[in-house]
Amino acid sequence: MKKSILYIVNFYGTAPLNYFEKYVRESNVAGITVLKLPAVRLRKNRLEIHAFIKDEDGKFHQSNHNLFFPFPHFLVFLVQYAINFFLLFSLLSKIKRRKFDIIIGETNFGGAAAFLLKKISKASFSVFFNGDIIPDPAWSKNCFFLPNNGRTGFIYKHMDNMLINLQSFLRSIAYKNNLVWFASEKIADLDSEKHLKNRKNMINDPILIDQLTTVEYVTAPKKMDTLCYIGRIDDYVGLDVIIPALKIIKKTIPDIRLLIIGGNDIVFEKYKRLAKENGVLDRIVFYGFIPEMEKALAIMSRCALGVALYKPVKDNVSLYTQPGKPKDYIMAGLPVLLTKNGPDIGKQIVQYKAGVESDFDIRSVANVISMVLTNTNFYHTLLKGTLKFAKAYDYRVRFKKISEELFRMIYDTKL
Question: Which residues contact 173 (CB under 8 A, 6 or more apart)?
């Protein structure tokens, strides 16, 4: 009899769920239900709720609201947790299936929810997908969850520490699941140092690529004067470097442009000021968050280079994970610019000649970008490298192996 899976997630259309779900449905290895709970997106005076459950037959039940909420960001997070707890059971009540063989929860909240559902007999086996780390408040004076504000920095930092403690509490519950699936060995090591352990662990990178999408987009006409960035926006992703670098690049490539996908009006204010100070505000397009990944890929595929400048400092949580941004660029048919001493994915991409690395400073970034965009032969070598990388990380082959290991650990046999 075909097994049933419930997958709890906060971001739909992103790894690892996007291709895990696709692989499961294509291979018919199990029936899969996806429960998408709202992710926290800070908006001025608004609380956005986007949630749904998608059953095994692909039928959607949605819960979308945009509410007036003129309260501090700290309260947005707390209210969001309460809403997610309510939606967890509300959305599950809308489908026919009442019990699953396997529940997989992403994020600390999702992992805690998976354990709770197993405890009340909603599943036979529960899994915590552990794809990120809990930051240590001592690493930095800046906030990790809340926007950093100079006038209320101390208060915000205190509240941010409270949110970190709440995440740590949820994570400790998530570790009580039957299995912890780590995205990287670094995450496992850091959690072990914090005495978070589980008897059954699996380390396997599930941030993968659809090779066919790369093949499609790599031939798209490239605007050799256009860069792109996709992802969250904060002090660790290199926008403080790339924006001033545009001023230098203009001397070599007068029409240089940067497209930014992700973020919101709150964080844009800082970078618009920075762009204005450097005289490049007219060279940047702020798209904001684009929920449809296909649309984002289509926009990026017309650019020449994807920017993934992870700040190489201890308190940058991306250094310990398997970030999806570089692979998003590869899937859009783009070579990648990465930071030396950044996440391990940088070394892998350079090994396949699908990208280049730079020091994390304005002058080095400007020089590397100018070289890549003006050296036609080298650029075509990088395009060929993206195809090689995409083939090596195609989800069809990799998820077959991951699924076999996952199901073997659950049932001591293949499904």
Answer: 111, 112, 115, 116
**Buried/exposed 271-294: b ≥16 CB within 10 Å, e otherwise:** beebbeebebbebbebbeeeeebe
> For helices 239-249 and 265-277, what crossing angle results, to 10°?
30
Query: Tokens at residue 348, please?
Result: 């892998």
Q: Residue 362 — very low, low, confident or very high, per pLDDT cuts 50/70/90?
A: very high
**pTM for this predicted structure:** 0.84
Is pLDDT at 152 greater than 90 in this prediction? Answer: no
Residue-wise pLDDT for 101-128, tens only, equals 999 999 999 999 999 999 999 999 999 9
pLDDT at residue 7, rounded to an integer: 98
Please name which of 147, 206, 191 lies closest in space to residue 317, comparing C-alpha atoms: 191
Query: In this predicted model, what pLDDT tens digit does every residue of 42-85 receive, in sequence order?
Result: 777 888 899 999 999 999 999 999 889 888 888 988 999 999 99
CA atoms within 13 A on the CB side of 247: 14
Angle value at C-alpha 343, between 385 and 161, nearest 5 degrees: 150
Task: State the virtual CA torsion across 90, 174, 49, 146 in degrees, nearest 10.
Answer: 150
Q: Which residue from 270, 255, 265 is spatially nearest to 287, judged by alpha carbons? A: 265
- Helices 73-92, 153-174: crossing angle, 10 deg rounding: 30
Alpha carbon 55 to its chain's center? 24
Q: State the pLDDT confidence band at 226, using cuts at 50, 70 and 90.
A: very high
User: C-alpha 65: how far from its chain's center?
Assistant: 23
Q: How many CB atoms lie within 10 A of CB 258?
A: 22
Do 346 and 339 form a contact (C-beta atoms < 8 A)? yes
Residues 183, 197 contacting (CB under 8 angstroms): no
pLDDT at residue 94, rounded to an integer? 97
Euclidean distance between CA atoms 23 and 15, whole angstroms: 12
Q: Is beta strand 30-36 parallel, antiparallel or unpaired with respect to 46-54?
A: antiparallel
Distances (CA, A) of 47 to 40, 67, 145, 164: 9, 5, 16, 21
